[in-house]
Amino acid sequence: MRENRWATVVAALCASAALGLVAPHAAVADPEPCSYTSPGLRPTLTYGDTGEAVKQAQCLSNVWGGEPPKLALNGVLDSATLEKIEWIQVCHGLPPSGVIEDRTWQVLYRPALDCYHPYPA
Questions:
Q1: Mind listing the pLDDT tens digit for each residue in 45-54?
Q2: What's the pLDDT tens digit per position in 22-60?
Q3: Contact 88/104 with Cβ under 8 angstroms?
Q4: DSSP state string for the chain
Q5: Domains along the chain?
């Protein structure tokens, strides 16, 4: 009887793990590789802005895996950076303004697990 109970528990855990139901995955950007600014420094950034805060946003956007291209960490909020920020905003249900403000900083530090919105070609 005890063996059957353990077999049931093990089978349920294996099935849950296969379905990703065992524990929620936290997608949090590791601040170590992106240490151009303090995580508490979150200025509003717009197209054409330059500096270490832009480089921090570019670095954090590169945490996203999969299809989106990695940005050059040049510290310039250029068209490539703008396009990626807009895509990240859409993935999180934010208006795709391209402006990096508090809500966008929040999602850069805590990216979604998946985005079902295709990256622009």
A1: 999 999 999 9
A2: 333 334 445 467 999 999 999 999 999 999 999 999 999
A3: yes
A4: -HHHHHHHHHHHHHHHHHHT-SSPPP----TTT--SS-TT----B-TT-BSHHHHHHHHHHTT--SSSPPPP--SB--HHHHHHHHHHHHHTT------B-HHHHHHHHS--S---SPPP-
A5: 27-109 (1.10.101.10)
Rounded distance between C-alpha atoms, residue 29 and residue 32, angstroms: 9
Place of tokens 């590169």: 62
> pTM for this structure?
0.71
